[in-house]
Amino acid sequence: MRLLVCGGAGFIGSAFVRLRQADHGDEVVVLDKLTYAGRRENLEGLDVRLIEAGIEDPHAVASAMEGIDAVVNFAAETHVDRSITAPDAFVTTHAVGTWVLLEEARRRGVRYVQISTDEVYGSIEDGSFTESSPLQPSSPYSATKAGADLLVASYHHTYALPTLICRGSNNYGPRQYPEKLIPLMILNALHGDRLPVYGDGMQVRNWLYVDDFARGIGTVLAHGTPGETYNVGGPDECPNLEVVQRIIQLTGNDDSLIEYVTDRPGHDRRYSLGSEKVRALGWEAQVRFLDGLQQTVRWYRDHRAWWEPIRSGDYREYYRRQYGTQIKGGRALS
Ligand code: NAD
Ligand code: TYD
Asked: Of 72, 96, 131, 192, which residue is the least packed, with the fewest Cβ within 10 Å?
């Protein structure tokens, strides 16, 4: 296939491109704005044409979609904490950007896959969300992602565009930007820095290894019914505190590194996704959480050249703003 992968220089997009080229030999065009989270090195060793532009740019989108069989849209602002302090880019990329992609896809009648998140359903105390659960997003991140999903659904309903929506649960694995829980805790633990746990640390996330999500998206792209939404949830749930304690063990540290900090405003307590529908298409998660976490710690240990430039660059300033005043002694990152 000839695929246009928007946001393909990010964490999950680049894992998807790697998998498609290894397993299917797809021809891939990546359209990516290369924000702080988008990195050229994520595409190293892959045979892709990279167009550096935003999905909200109609001219770039029109030329990127030339001769394409299907579009998979990963492009997004993805960090909930940043959406709380500066929501602007979330609205532009998720609402305007998704609309620009849909318009061009409609002009060409191209199959369109939107990558979405379990966070559009909000928080759930017991049980799991299905695809027909109501959308009750809590943060500017999840609200704008939900808006994008609704726009995608409207293009199927109104214009019969062959659209698919894939909602993943929390991903982890190699090449995740260290603002997110797991890589942040791994890198801090490797440096002996404090481990900032929000609130009581008993929030639960449904962990999905990134390659499992990438395969799930491939399954939906190949076998999904146009107009439908598919949840792709991980095999295991775990409270944040336990995730952090596992990372402490895997890096040879002790619990004294943990620092409880002020909770995130509007923090969702628990996510849980039911994935029966994508299972019926033949997908199954292959990586259990404790194995995947071990592999992820090993990857960060072995790939300092990937993360050292991040940790010594703009990320330091972000970290200082987000955590600096809360960490004992005022010393945020070593
Ligand atoms: P990421 O932050 O690592 O990557 C996002 C990519 O999008 C980056 O390469 C960035 O440069 C690019 N981008 C941002 N704005 C853009 C724009 N306007 N135009 C073009 N490119 C732009 O994110 P990720 O974790 O790989 O997430 C990818 C997708 O998967 C997102 O849509 C996200 O909502 C969804 N998702 C993520 C998770 C998770 O746990 N990380 C879980 C479920 C769903
Ligand atoms: P995160 O990786 O930001 O993903 P999301 O908010 O999209 O689920 O956070 C995962 C969980 O970890 C969430 O409950 C917030 C918590 N968390 C911390 O306790 N400390 C941190 O420094 C970060 C980044 C997250």
From this structure: 192
Ligand 1 neighbours (beta carbon < 6 A): 6-7, 9-13, 32-35, 37-38, 54-56, 74-78, 93, 97, 115, 117, 145, 168, 170-171, 177
List the beta bridge partners of residue 51.
Answer: 31
Whole-number pLDDT of residue 289: 98
> Rounded to the nearest whole angstrom, what is the distance from the C-alpha of residue 19 to the centroid of ligand 2?
27
Task: Give the Å distances, CA to CA, from 64 to 19, 67, 220, 223, 238.
Answer: 21, 9, 22, 24, 40
- Indicate the number of domains in the chain: 2
pTM of the full structure: 0.98
Structural domain harbouring 110: 2-170+208-232
- The parts of the chain modelled with pLDDT lower than 70 are 327-331
What local confidence, expressed as pLDDT, does residue 24 receive? 95
Residue 25 inside a domain? The answer is: yes
Beta strands in the chain (DSSP E): 2-6, 27-32, 48-52, 70-73, 111-117, 163-168, 171-172, 195-198, 204-209, 229-232, 236-239, 258-261
Do 182 and 135 share a domain, yes or no? no
